[in-house]
Amino acid sequence: MAAALATGRFEPTSDYAYTADADAVCIGVATPLNKTRQPDLSFIHAALDMLAVHLREPCLLVLESTTFLGTTEEVVAPQARPCGR
Hints:
Layout: H1 2-7, E1 24-27, H2 42-52, E2 60-63, H3 71-80
Parallel strand pairs: 1-2
Helix pairs in contact: 2-3
């Protein structure tokens, strides 16, 4: 990771405004289990809400959270479209 940081092409941040010029964005948020032992997707939804105003097309959006199969296609993709501006 140090090599990636040294190039200036990789910048971990929690400031959503930085994503406006990003070619790729990785979402890594907690997905605790709810009372029925299913992943709580509220953190994913909150991150997507905050990103929506900043993302531009084309932008690769990667979900790096432990959740059920299909979350990226069924939850992330519809909520991320249309990208921000």
